[in-house]
Amino acid sequence: MKNFNLSVAMLLFIGLSSLQAQERIPQVEALLEKMTLEEKIGQLNLLTPGGGVATGSVVSEDVEAKIKAGDVGGIFGVSSPDRVRQAQELAVKNSRLGIPLLIGSDVIHGYKSTVPIPLGLSSSWDMELIKETAKVAAKEATADGINWNFSPMVDISRDPRWGRVAEGAGEDAYLGSQVAIAMVEGYQQDDLRAPNTMMATVKHFALYGAAEGGRDYNRVDMSRNMMFNEYFPPYKAAVDAGVGSVMTSFNDVDGIPATGNKWLLTDILRERWGFDGFVVSDYTSVNEMVDHGMGDLQAVSAMALKAGLDMDMVGEGFLTTLKKSVEEGKVTEEEITTAARRILEAKHKLGLLDDPYRYSDASRPEKDILTKENRQLARHAATQSFVLLKRNDNNLPVSKTAKIALIGPLANDKFNMLGTWAPTGDRNLSIPVLEGFRNVAPNAQITYAKGANISNDTAFAKKVNVFGPRIEISDESPDQLLEEALKVAQASDVVVAVVGEASEMSGESANRTSIQIPESQKRLIRELVATKKPVVLVLMSGRPLDISEEMDMPVSILQAWHPGIEAGNAVADVVFGDVNPSGKLTMSWPRNVGQIPVYYGERTTGRPQATEEFQKFKSNYLDVQNSPLLPFGHGLSYTLFEYSKIKATSETLRPGSTVNISVTVTNVGDRAGKEVVQLYIHDKVRSITPPKKQLIAFEKIDLKPGESKTIEFPVTVEDLKFYNTDLEYVAEPGEFEFFVGGTSDCEMQGTFNLVE
Ligand code: BGC
After folding, report:
1. DSSP-derived secondary structure letter, 311
2. 9, 517, 618, 663: which has the highest count of C-beta atoms within 10 A?
3. Of all protein residues, whose CA lies closest to atom 10 belonging to ligand 1?
4. How many angstroms separate the CA atoms of 434 and 750, rounded?
5. Which of 47, 48, 53, 55 gets mutated to test ligand 1 (max ligand atoms within 8 A of its CB)?
């Protein structure tokens, strides 16, 4: 009965969404009427004239001539109102039909007022804040001529070896979905025609984060069950939030490259989810299907179009082969018209067909970019992204009048502060930690020493420095650097060491098989600890690191990711206690690389390990515990929170009703602070193996010292649904356990029953 209802509902839904898609826009249809086959194919072509970051070996040539010829639908890597106006003029005044261009960009974490890398931002668990940062990014980017953004990246990632974990929101489908919604809503708001909003692109569809071995661009193989339950939800959430475009991923899905995967791009995205925007490939990912073994350029271009791809990024496979494919009957003109229609509809949604220059207002950059307010938001966002991993002897916060040894290769650095994928930011404008310390604690005695290179390995540094200096190896020897730092440390009350990864040690094509702090810096840390001075580590990285050794040391550890343009000020705000840290990890941190993947939502096994003790013939390791070093949801504060009175209003949940799970949280310390209260469930019996725990709700609250708040999480049948083996979205009757706490590593608190 349940299945029957569901399929009727699904049919109705599919019917409705294709009806919606049939609503034609007269302005677009009138244009299509006039267009030649070549002009339609031209709309499907996305080029970059350079000037941005080229993430492949190809950069487009003769872009001007192609725009004039009507062979280009959009460009990226071009900004400023003037340059964008010039580009639009090429299209509008010179091409036969004068169709304006989409102007794309990778605005991944802020435009010029760079905010923390997305993995950091997600650690704030503050959806309003994330939305606000996206809004400001859109305001700045549109002021500079951009109307289409290649963000949010929502790929679930559970493998910290993969460099691109920095760009997403971590391991969890529910949290990832909330972040996806916040970002789409922030970029697009509810009016894409407004001059300060831009079209968002959810990427990389799909499963890009599950590359084997954590090696970028590598193959992915995954069950449909895992796709639907654990990897698809954030993409779907973005689609439901009205995202304007979808970017395909480089990997294959079930043996077929995503860019040419009809099941993915048509059956799932359009027919099942009702997506009515356009689909763009990733950088040359059409061409890369040749290397994937799918045929020659003509064959893969036809395959991609037929699968549901509308726009070809940089590779020009569509431009150079589709006409021939029409002539040879390999694709139809109608398929090309459908894709061109979607591109034109996007231009219509953005208001470009009415006013091609609406994003070329020369007076805007000065008013809207890098304003005091935007930088203030970037600073606030950074403080909210920091995660206090460990607090030792209350040596954090540091007194503003202390004698401080500020040490480390990232302590007086500008070039790594923005983080990876910040091509629109200006590294020279970022605030180093040393400067931030002087701003926030002018009465402290601060002495700086570099202490170590990020890495001493010149060959490694060369690979990391592809976009400019990130690892700068000093002329001084490592021993000299260390000696100076130890001298400074000896003379101090407290040592603050800013250590970790260079920005380009994570990000695209920046994978690592060892995810420890580089040895040059580990040595520095050991020696600093040996001075017996209180030591605070401010750790910067684009991924979870293996810090097993450092966690065992008598140090405090503040994870600061790569904090963005206001890095130094934000680090100082938290180190000196003006802001109490409140971030929580959105990816588990492993004890070692061999434990990867390690994530809180793993499925049950038939031989679970009851305790952390090794047990023969149970699912565990001889050499390390099963639990991660630091779990998803973990993050400390300068104050303490106590959880009490956790209860459910009812033991029974019926369809249409609600069980309220309530909890009282009290700040039992002496500082105001914020806590992310998390609710997890475990489905005790179901038709496919359930996760051991699953986040279904959270709330971030503010508490003054001594203050208590009671939070209620209303739970309905919707929160208990999953995709069963037939990929139907169902909740199954039976017992559910619930867990409440300030980390995923929290205790079971009670149960309720779902009855039919
Ligand atoms: C990346 C995308 C990005 C594109 C355009 C690709 O290499 O995978 O995330 O949007 O380049 O810059």
Report:
1. B
2. 517
3. 150
4. 49
5. 55
Give the residue numbers annotated as catalytic, written as ranges: 282
Distance 106 CA to ligand 1 centre (A): 7
Ligand 1: residue whose CA is nearest its atom 5? 283
Checking if the pLDDT of 104 tops 60, the result is yes
Q: How far is CA 102 from its chain centroid?
A: 23
| Closest-lying ligand 1 atom to the alpha carbon of residue 250 | 8
Phi, psi of 594, deg, nearest 5: -65, -20
**Burial label, 393 (beta-carbon count in 10 A; 0-12, 13-18, 19+):** exposed
Assigned superfamily of 375-585: Glycoside hydrolase family 3 C-terminal domain (3.40.50.1700)
Give alpha helix (H) positions in 144-223.
Answer: 173-188
Cα of 345 to ligand 1 centre, how many Å?
A: 23
Atom of ligand 1 nearest to the CA of 52: 12
Question: How do residues 107-144 score in pLDDT, each as one tens digit?
Answer: 999 999 999 999 999 999 999 999 999 999 999 999 99
CATH architecture of 641-754: Sandwich (2.60)
For residue 409, pLDDT beyond 80: yes
Answer whether residue 506 shows pLDDT above 80.
yes
The answer to whether 188 and 201 are in contact (CB under 8 A) is no
Torsions phi, psi for 366 (to 5 deg) = -65, -35
At which residue do the structure tokens 């969890």 appear?
172
Measured distance between the N- and C-terminal CA atoms of the chain, rounded to whole angstroms: 12
Residue 610 above 90 pLDDT?
no
User: Is the pLDDT confidence value at 309 over 70?
Assistant: yes
Residues having CB within 6 Å of any atom of ligand 1: 55, 106, 150, 203, 282-283, 508
- Express each pLDDT in 631-672 by its tens digit: 999 999 999 999 999 999 999 999 999 999 999 999 999 999
Sheet holding 708-715, edge to edge: 641-648, 659-667, 708-715
Closest C-alpha to 173, from 130, 240, 234, 121: 234
Distance 90 CA to ligand 1 centre (A): 25
Residues 262-274, mean pLDDT to the nearest whole number:
98
* Contact indicator for 126, 175 with CB cutoff of 8 Å: no
Atom of ligand 1 nearest to the CA of 55: 7
Residue of 46, 53, 102, 508 with the most ligand 1 atoms within 8 Å of its CB, for mutation:
508
pTM for this prediction: 0.96
Q: Looking at ligand 1, which atom is closest to the CA of residue 208?
A: 8
For residue range 44-86, list pLDDT tens digits in order.
999 998 755 455 666 677 899 999 999 999 999 999 999 999 9
Distance of CA 283 from the midpoint of ligand 1 (Å): 6
Architecture of the domain defined by 103-363: Alpha-Beta Barrel (3.20)
The residue ranges of every structural domain in the chain are 103-363, 375-585, 641-754
CA distance 421 to 262: 30
Residue with tokens 């290649």, as numbered in its chain:
150
Nearest CA to ligand 1 atom 2: 282
